[in-house]
């Protein structure tokens, strides 16, 4: 199965997810996965909802992994009718105001965490993209940041804020031994020859939110949503935001129309166009004889 995934140039994260799913599938039935069939897939899918309470999108990903295993690895048929994908759940993401973003960044536990949060908000990068930024990706003459190998193995450029550039230079001068390769090097002293893990970005977000007293659920992707929503409210067009976020389809970006206070506030309710007479005064109910 790994060979089939590698032949198709799947990303490392997708490969790990697919392999772990097949392992979990086999452990659930205590049998080798090639000895299992459609009836086992149906039972496995049902317990993902009923026992594990997984979200529909997570179950869809698990089914995609099993479908790949049966079709591409075992060369067995797969019936879509017998194994339907569940309906996706559509939920609007939580958005912080600009004041709350300021509170979050100011509450960072360390200067390193502060730099991570600032960069995440200023660029809208995914946490894996943020963790794997290289020094050479900062193009100060052109005032852009090069994002290499983003989701779907696609490169793109995002803007480099003058304020962010100034903060990055101060951060860089404060490192004990700046890396020649990674912008955010790993280990406790940030001197390793490898980048930080995505868990570091997650922890920086969670700890800053607790210190700032923000009760809303905050994670690295929250700052990505804030980046897009605040850009839209500042007048940026959807197509520009789509390119900056690296979305494949413009429809993915239209979610921010539902989150923008400016766009919601500028849209009048049809009630405002009605000519209504004044409401009658409240009268006491008539007594029954």
Keywords:
single chain, 289 residues, mainly alpha, 3-stranded antiparallel beta sheet, 13 helices, globular
Q: Would you kindly provide a written description of the structure presented here, covering whatever features stand out?
A:
With 289 residues, the chain is mainly alpha-helical. Helix content is 49%, strand content 3%. Strands 1-2-3 form a 3-stranded antiparallel sheet. 26% of the residues are buried.
Write the layout of secondary structure elements.
Elements: H1 2-7, H2 12-29, H3 38-50, H4 56-73, H5 98-106, H6 111-123, H7 127-131, E1 138-139, E2 144-147, E3 156-159, H8 162-173, H9 198-212, H10 220-233, H11 238-245, H12 250-253, H13 261-266
Brief overview:
The chain is mostly helical.
Describe the largest sheet: 3 strands, antiparallel
Instruction: Work out the strand percent.
Output: under 5%
Structure classification? mainly alpha
| Tally of contiguous helical segments | 13
Strand order of the largest sheet: 1-2-3
User: How many β strands by DSSP?
Assistant: 3
Secondary-structure element order, as H and E? Answer: HHHHHHHEEEHHHHHH
What is the overall shape? globular
Give the C-alpha Rg: 25 Å
Low-confidence stretches: none
Q: How far apart are the termini? A: 83 Å
Instruction: Please identify the oligomeric state.
Output: single chain
Specify the helix fraction band.
40-55%
Average per-residue pLDDT, rounded, comes to 91
């Amino acid at each position: 199965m790994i060979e089939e995934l590698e032949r198709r140039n799947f990303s490392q994260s997708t490969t790990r997810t697919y392999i772990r799913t097949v392992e979990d599938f086999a452990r659930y039935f205590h049998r080798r996965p090639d000895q299992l069939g459609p009836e086992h897939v149906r039972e496995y899918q049902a317990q993902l909802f009923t026992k594990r309470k997984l979200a529909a999108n997570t179950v869809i990903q698990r089914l995609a992994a099993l479908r790949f295993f049966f079709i591409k690895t075992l060369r067995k048929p797969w019936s879509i009718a017998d194994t339907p994908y569940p309906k996706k759940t559509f939920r609007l993401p939580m958005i912080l105001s600009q004041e709350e973003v300021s509170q979050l960044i100011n509450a960072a536990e360390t200067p390193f965490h502060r730099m991570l949060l600032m960069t995440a908000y200023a660029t809208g990068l995914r946490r894996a993209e943020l963790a794997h930024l290289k020094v050479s990706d900062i193009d100060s003459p052109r005032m852009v940041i090069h994002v290499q190998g983003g989701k779907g193995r696609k490169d793109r450029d995002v803007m480099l804020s003058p304020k962010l550039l100034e903060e990055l230079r101060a951060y860089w001068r404060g490192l004990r031994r700046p890396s020649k390769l990674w912008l955010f090097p790993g280990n406790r002293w940030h001197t390793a020859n490898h980048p930080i893990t995505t868990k570091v970005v997650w922890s920086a977000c969670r700890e800053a939110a607790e210190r700032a007293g923000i009760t809303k659920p905050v994670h690295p992707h929250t700052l990505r949503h804030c980046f897009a929503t605040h850009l839209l409210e500042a007048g940026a067009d959807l197509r520009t935001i789509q390119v900056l976020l690296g979305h494949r389809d413009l429809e993915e970006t239209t979610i921010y129309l539902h989150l923008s206070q400016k766009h919601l506030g500028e849209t009048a309710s049809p009630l405002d166009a009605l000519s209504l007479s004044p409401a009658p005064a409240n009268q006491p109910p008539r007594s029954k004889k």
